[in-house]
Design a protein that fits this description.
This protein is about 55% helix and about 5% strand. With about 625 residues, it is of the alpha/beta class. The chain has a 5-stranded parallel beta sheet, with helices on both faces. Strands 6-7 form a two-stranded antiparallel ribbon. It has a two-stranded antiparallel sheet with strand order 8-9. Strand 6 (about 330-335) and strand 7 (about 335-340) form a beta hairpin.
Length: about 625
């Protein structure tokens, strides 16, 4: 196939086949058609300008006069306020067909300052001459921060136009949309002026698997093969518009990609090579936005580290550091929690990148804090394992962990549970992983129990899960079973304390699925089936509680897949096929993307949005046809 099918830079042509409509297309069109002010403020290369171009065409088709001005075209370095506002009005005049009237008005009103002159021109010329709704897009709005003069008055003037609607009904025909890479709170920097607080935010989401389906047309192979390649591409990109188009194009141009492993090879070369962060435009933007931000770099990178370690941090629109991460495009919000946006960013901006970009003072502080903590723990005599080119030292033994302050001990444990594990897993060091997992379990045993929190107990369950996973990978199925059963016991105790806590219920379901995996590997299909049914029963109860909860619905899909696998292994091929269709949520989508798509969509860092209600409805029909007692957990 030809990579020209995909476009990886600039605004997509209006007739581009690779343009993917999203919910934002409808939101923007409907908002402006209704006369509401709005803004699309997001990171670079997520489709803002293409969204604007398509909205402009649709609005013109329903009779709205539209002008779209890219502010970078007005000049940046040498303009005076007079020149800049005059250039903006000239652009509007050209697109509205009012060049001469607007030019005459500008020259006649020289007694007014540039901004009032622009605002009066909109009211007295544009709205008087165009007797229909008028919409103005101001793109690349962040460029105003690079001008040689302050532009707070521009956004204050836009707000004034909005507020004057109640006194001047003609202004109701004028709508503005701001587009760029900036936070609304940064538009007005003078503390004496009220912050910019009008308009509706139009949110740009990443492509869902269903939305991205047209992109398979440019990939090699049969439709089914192309669907499987696309599923793997989305596995890496999470649906990020630029990264998805970029990886699709690279796969199409490679000529040798026939399976998901080929996609992995291309992705590795494109985004994870030694010089990728310096050469790949999107990675350069993300890195530059973070490292050149005015925010405290040490605090910013520490916040990102916590998000990367899955610390379950909640989104906070008032947190300026979260705003910087959001505009860099490196994080996303799911169910109110912050996550690294996709697997490409997770791997490209890893622990080594964080450490390499910390200010020198912060690095020294961290090293000193680590040395003090090590001395308190009596770790000076412990063996130190050099891993990953000697970049990380890990204190392997601790004789007096109980003497530590709880915060220090749990910080070390979280490091072992998440960050260190993420370092060792890709390089296949199961021996070190086993040591990490065992030591984490040991640390939990030595922590004081008098003040143990539910979160501590949850992490103790994670430690046993990690140990079970390593033992399972090593082929020690009996050892894995013991570890997974310990994790289950912890989660059942938590659930007994708070039976309505959904996270504890979900943890129990996950434990049963892990136990089912081990029993299946041991050849105990009946035991595996029983465990999977318990997991399915819990997943169904949670999915009914919140049909739009992505994690719970994903669990339901996984449970159906696992049951289908066991039934097929037992020779019941009809049930297995049925279960796998239900797990995918839509059998037509599964056929289009290939048999592995439902599993790929269920990976934690993706954001699938299948039709869950259809899945549950199909699941009920499937269980009725196949004799499964839904929700009972009965293994018979």
């Amino acid at each position: 196939m030809n990579g020209d099918f995909y476009q990886t830079g600039g605004t997509l042509a209006l007739d581009a086949v690779s343009y993917i409509p999203r919910q934002a297309d409808e939101d923007l069109f409907e908002t402006i058609q209704a006369g509401e002010f709005c803004y699309v403020l997001d990171s670079r290369q997520v489709g803002k300008s293409s969204l604007m171009a398509h909205a402009k065409r649709r609005l013109e088709q329903v009779g709205i006069a539209v002008a779209a001005v890219e502010l970078t075209a007005l000049g940046i370095t040498s303009n005076t306020p007079e020149q800049w506002y005059d250039a903006l009005l000239a652009k509007l005049g050209t697109q509205f067909g009012l060049e001469d009237p607007l030019d005459d008005f500008w020259l006649e009103q020289t007694r007014l300052a540039p901004l009032p002159r622009l605002m009066d021109a909109l009211r007295q010329v544009v709205l008087e001459r165009l007797e229909r709704p008028v919409a103005i897009f101001l793109d690349e709005i962040d460029v105003v921060r690079s001008l040689s003069f302050r532009t707070d008055e521009l956004f204050a003037g836009i707000r004034e136009l909005y507020n004057r609607r109640t006194q001047d009904p003609v202004l109701e025909r004028l709508t503005l949309c701001l587009i760029g890479v900036v936070q609304p709170t940064d538009l007005i920097q003078d503390p004496r002026i009220t912050p910019f607080n009008i308009g509706r935010r139009i949110e740009l989401t990443d492509f869902t698997p269903a939305e991205a389906t047209p992109l398979a047309q440019g990939l090699p192979g049969t439709p089914a093969q192309a669907g499987r390649l696309l599923a793997r591409i989305l596995y890496w990109t999470g649906g990020h518009p630029y990264l998805t188009q970029r990886l699709c194009r690279a796969v199409a141009e490679d000529g040798q990609v026939r399976n998901p492993r080929g996609v992995d090879r291309v992705c590795e070369a494109l985004f994870f090579s030694t010089r990728a962060r310096d050469q790949e435009h999107n990675l350069k933007f993300v890195s530059g936005h973070l490292l050149r931000s005015d925010a405290d770099r040490a605090a910013l990178l520490d916040l990102y580290r916590q998000i990367r370690e899955r610390r379950r941090l909640r989104d906070d629109p008032t947190n300026l550091l979260i705003g910087v991460l959001r505009l860099a495009g490196i994080v996303r919000t799911l169910e109110g929690l912050l996550w690294v946006r996709n697997r490409i960013y997770f791997r490209a901006f890893d622990h080594d990148w964080i450490q390499a970009n910390l200010p020198d003072a912060e690095i020294r502080r961290q090293r000193a804090a680590y040395r003090r903590g090590a001395l308190r723990m009596g770790l000076a005599s412990g063996a130190v394992i050099a891993i990953l080119l000697g970049a990380i030292g890990w204190a392997y033994r601790a004789e007096r962990v109980a003497t530590l302050a709880r915060g220090q001990a749990e910080e070390l444990i979280n490091y072992m549970l998440f960050d260190l594990r993420d370092k060792l897993l890709p390089i296949g060091r199961l021996d070190l992983l086993d040591g990490v997992a065992r030591q984490a379990v040991k640390y939990f045993e030595q922590l004081p129990t008098s003040e143990a929190s539910n979160e501590t107990e949850r992490n103790r369950g994670v430690a046993f899960d990690n140990l079970g996973g390593v033992r399972e990978a090593q082929g020690d199925l009996a050892g894995a079973l013991v570890a997974y059963e310990a994790a289950l016991a912890i989660r059942e105790r938590l659930s007994a304390l708070d039976p309505d806590h959904a996270d504890w219920q979900r943890g129990i379901a996950i434990s049963h699925n892990k136990l089912g995996d081990v029993r299946k590997a041991q050849g105990d299909l009946a035991g595996a089936l029983g465990a999977y049914k318990v997991g399915l029963a819990i997943a169904e109860r949670l999915s009914v509680l919140d049909p739009d909860h992505a994690d719970w619905q994903r669990d339901l899909s996984i449970s159906h897949n696992k049951l289908g696998d066991v039934r097929k292994a037992q020779g019941d091929f009809g049930w297995g096929a049925c279960g796998l269709r239900v797990g995918a949520g839509d059998h037509r989508a599964t056929e289009r993307l290939g048999p592995g798509s439902c599993r790929l969509a269920a990976r934690p860092l993706d954001q699938p949005r299948p039709n869950w209600r259809r899945a549950r409805s199909a699941g009920r029909s499937c269980r009725g046809a196949c004799g499964l007692r839904g929700g009972s957990g009965d293994s018979r």
